[in-house]
Amino acid sequence: MNCQKYQENLPHTIDSGGNAEEEAHLQSCTECASVVQDLKYIANQAKLLLPMHDPSPRVWQNIQSSLRNEGLISEGRTSLMAQKTISQVPSSSSKAFSARAKSWTPLGWAIGLAAVVLLGVVLVNYHPTPTQPEVAQNSAAGQAQVVADQELIGQVSKQQPAMRATYEDSLKSVNAYIVDAKKTVEDNPEDSAAQRQLMDAYDQKAMLYEMATVRSLQ
Amino acid sequence: MTQAKKLIAPGLTEAEAIERAKSGDAEAFEALYAFHKRRVYSLCLRMTGNTAQAEDFTQDAFMQLYRKIGTFRGESAFSTWLHRMAVNVVLMQLRKKGLPEISLDEMLEPLHEDGPRRDIGARDNVLAGSVDRVNLERAIADLPPGYRIVFTLHDVEGYEHNEIAEMMGCSIGNSKSQLHKARLKLRDLLKLRRAEKANRR
Q1: Residue A14's domain spans which residues?
Q2: A142 and A209 together in one domain
Q3: Which strand (E) or helix (H) includes residue B13?
Q4: Chain B residue nearest residue A179, CA to CA
Q5: Do A128 and A43 reside in the same domain of the chain?
């Protein structure tokens, strides 16, 4: 078995494993091992990608208009979009929270406020090249975030124990995304796409807090 | 969580919304749209790498959903069913637009014209730990269309090769081959970007 032969078969063996001869080659060849390690790493990282983007409101407007044109829905129907569903990331977290404020319990207030404060502190204080006091402030915000997350999981565990694992996984994913996006922004402060990704990641986190609050009221 | 209990809006479970949408309830359909739009749009965006096309295909997918929701029998999760519908919409639209599909020629071409991959200092040059999700998203967007579609379906969305082969009208071997080439291409793109970044410092 040489590298050429091994790599020719790789599309068919990389996910399921090769035969004894191929495995032996992999153990002894640093170059092929490096290729396999990288490709598996890419595949594993891809599994961690989240659906991060929302379509513009224009998409729903077009759908509504098409449905009307085809006579599938009637004119003059009140749009539900004014009442946001729990999956929808608020375009402005504070607006969404204040819209629901009247019906919130103390728990809802606490969680919602934590999310808003978290988002606000980070966004206001975040600079690509922080000064010493900003580093300390960001570190404090990071610690507050960890405490808020633990608080959230604690509340979910009490009210909806079955949802605990889901929230833990979601928080873990979104926190990892935030770390990645922040790192990219730090590396490329002028990169507007990276800044948008960071905002999206924070939006997702705010959404998780909002979902927990809404569900606690059910 | 079961579909029956999954809340998609305050006081509305997914199962209730589906049943109401089947009866033509537009508000229930709107709730389904609001709950699933992000995942469907992200899928379309990753498959096309183009926001305008992704929005068009998202619209088509939900129009298709409205017309076909009456045929949903609950044999799979609703999100799985909708997702598959969205994939089919994207593939169908891409075919209509004459964008690249997997061809037999690609399948038959040698994997590497210059022989096996060789990296100088390979052990010190592995990607592990050095790629964040943001850069991976960008590299995926830069893949050639055929590679991007198969990579998105398999590695991001979790479809099996037999499902991809069925959806794309190609062989399982072809799907595996395209996926492998996509991963190799991504590896090159990610290493190139890492090197560029290192040079800037």
Answers
A1: 3-47
A2: yes
A3: strand B12-13
A4: B132
A5: no
pLDDT band for position A125 (cuts 50, 70, 90): low
* A58 occurs within a structural domain: no
Supply the mean pLDDT for chain B.
Answer: 83
A103 with A201, same domain: the answer is: yes
Answer yes or no: is the ipTM higher than 0.85.
no
Same domain, yes or no, for A20 and A95? no
Phi, psi (5° rounding) for residue A140? -65, -40
Contact A166, A180 (CB under 8 A): no
Is A76 domain-assigned?
no
In chain B, residues 139-198 whose CB comes closer than 8 Å to chain A: 140, 151, 155-156, 158, 173, 176-177, 179-181, 183-184, 186-187, 190, 197
Among the partner-chain residues B9, B58, B138, the one whose CB lies closest to the CB of A55 is B58
pTM: 0.67
Q: Are residues A113 and A208 in the same domain?
A: yes
| Residue among A8, A84, A217 minimizing CB distance to B111 | A8
Instruction: Domains for chain B: give ranges and CATH numbers.
Output: 7-96 (1.10.1740.10), 104-200 (1.10.10.10)
**A51 — phi, psi (to 5°)?**
-70, 105
- What residues of chain B, 42 to 71, have a C-beta less than 8 Å from chain A? 42-43, 45, 54-55, 58-59, 62-63, 66
Tens digit of each residue's pLDDT (9 = 90 or more) over B181-195? 999 999 999 988 888
- Helices B172-200 and A30-47 sit at what angle, rounded to 10 degrees? 100
| Residue A19: pLDDT band with limits 50, 70, 90 | confident
User: What is residue B196's predicted lDDT score, i.e. its pLDDT?
Assistant: 81
d(CA B24, CA B86) in angstroms, rounded, equals 20
Give burial (CB, 10 Å; 0-12/13-18/19+) of A28.
Answer: exposed
Greater confidence, A111 or A85? A111
What's the confidence (pLDDT) of residue A111? 56
